[in-house]
User: Fold Tyrosine recombinase XerC from Nocardiopsis sinuspersici.
Amino acid sequence: MLNRFAAYLSGELGRSPHTVRGYLADLRSLRAHLESRGRGWEDLDVPLVRAWLSHARDTGASRATVARRVAAVRALTRFLYREGVLATDPGPRLAGPAQQRALPAVLDERQAAAALSRGPDETPAALRGRAVVETLYATGVRVAELCALDLADVDRERDTVRVLGKGAKERTVPVGGPALEAIDAWLSGGRPEMAVPGSGTALFLGARGGRLGVRQAREDVHTYLRAAGVDGTPHGLRHSAATHLLNGGADLRSVQEFLGHASPRSTQIYTHVSVQRLRDTYRRAHPRA
Assistant:
């Protein structure tokens, strides 16, 4: 049943491999909970799930872990109901804990400018590192989305990048001149040195000539930013890009599209860092400021 559910998650819902692995790990725990009580999937109901979640909380599970477990169960019960295993779907009656979302760590505009102003070494790895950092900051893409980029995804006529995001949703985001210059430097001086017959169409390549992996991309970012005297991560660059857009006057809906968020609630976390912009607007607009 879990194998069929995994195929449903990835094939029909387009969930990422990371999400599928997380859900399956949670649901194996739920299966053990059911088996310890002599129950099966067909017996799944709200009291059984609540008892399982309560045990998780009692053993120290975080709010985020419990919320993910609730999401996994909701997806499973919807699937089991569709398959006829359950007569009704108890999922909508399961409430997850309120999420306490951490405020994102961001670079300010001066830090970002300083980090990206230094000239790169001319080694293939250094050229790739600069192109990776520039592209992440310019486009706000997730590191996995960056690693999935192909050569044809960069549109030079429109200065955009085509991105395949979560849930296999495609979006087009703008990319600035410095990032395009860094990509060009990588394509002319770095990629040919790393390419092998099996490299295919990947934009960024790893040391062995295959598509750049997420782990190596993270290391590229850490190495590049450390050399510039800045502490940052790929997701920090994404946070920074969104924050700087808002500080520069972009509206929340545009930033939502830019980041590929399905809901504006995911984008609203960035508004906390735009207090200075709000103060400036207040001083300009309010008659009693």
